[in-house]
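User: Hello, beginner here. Can you help me understand these amino acid letters and fold codes? It all follows right here:
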Amino acid sequence: MTASPLAPEWLTVPADQNDPAPQGRPALFPASVRRDGDAALSLAGVGVDELAATYGTPLYVVDEDELRTRARAFKAAYDAAFRPLCGGADVYYAGKVFLNASVVRWVREEGLRIDTASGGELAVALAAGVEPAEIGLHGNNKSDAEIERALTLGLGRIISDSLDEVARVAAAAQRLGVTARLMLRLTPGVHASTHEFIATAHEDQKFGLSMTPRAGQEASDAAQAVAAALASPHVELLGLHCHIGSQIFEAAGFAEAARRLIAFLGQIKAGHGVELPELDLGGGYGIAYTERDDPSTPERLAAETAAVVAEACAAAGVAVPRISIEPGRAIAGPAGVTLYSVGVQKDVEVRDGAVRRYVAVDGGMSDNARPVLYDADYSVLLASRASQAEPVLSRVVGKHCESGDIVVRDAYLPGDLRAGDLLAVPATGAYCWSLASNYNYLPRPAVVAVRDGAHRVIVRGETETELLARDAAL
């Protein structure tokens, strides 16, 4: 079959559209995914047909061992790379990616700490049994209640990214008679190759303290924040933090950010006589959503980062600080698969006889908002059976009353697809459940964990009764 003229250049016609792990392609599905002959796909020994029959669709499925393995790999790789430099590294699981009590316990058992971005995420981590000292609190606009709770609990770190918040944290610590363990999030000016809305180190956005003085400013916001934190007897300034974006494949951006922050550590030492003990280099490591993606490995990332950090610290004349990272997406993303049931199909002539098939499923932007938010691309596979039919260029769309309700923008699916077939969309473990909504009053799907041939609910699916329960007039 020749490629459709409507297909993007990177999308190739599959040689075997039934194989979840074709040779020469990046791994999109968890390692446990199998298809035996013409049978349905299975994850960790559990058939997708059994999952759909038990829980319905749409359904989020998480391979527990895949998530654990990825968490363990980052911890082991960064510990090994940084042990000679600073005794090891701390890995924080970014709760915003996908957070519930089960996931918290899994990553804690693999040696990770927890990064939270709100009072609600903090509540989940605490309820799951995480010690406050093992938790960090992010957020560009923390409430007074969130700050006071973090201080009262003795959280391991509060990450601030504004002069206003540094003053508020210091005042709250004084009022409570405690010491705030503070990190400062800076914008190093490194522009990662990523979508505009998930690039978080450029100057014109809401995150971070600028390292560059504005016109008429003697010292940058970052320098002023350091001075204010060091001057407060109620603040322990732990170190610096940055996050240059998300879904990044090139190591150069992380390396340059590390160089700039370490040079700033040298300036702090020269100006204040203080060596800050910690440096968090954030996360944003990319994963494979489609065949064009080429993610790095924890081992390669750790080795490259360690080499840059060692070189930069020597140049700046500072000891290597304790390093921490936050690889949330790279841990949870590839461990998740979303199952959908096929409904309506229609063929649409786009131009000069070229046809795109629209395949509607029973979910959509309410369970995966990333395509409409970030133009994100995903892949898809017929999961409930094998097919020898000729592949057809297809667009998988949801059931919402929006033209932008797209689940998979471009994919080849079998031409004999029919209503009731199950589709599997891989790499949905990150930012799908956490961004889910009730748009059009669709209940949010359940999350089911699979491991060793068994399955169990880790987040209950919503019911219409639960949706109506919030309506005060009812």
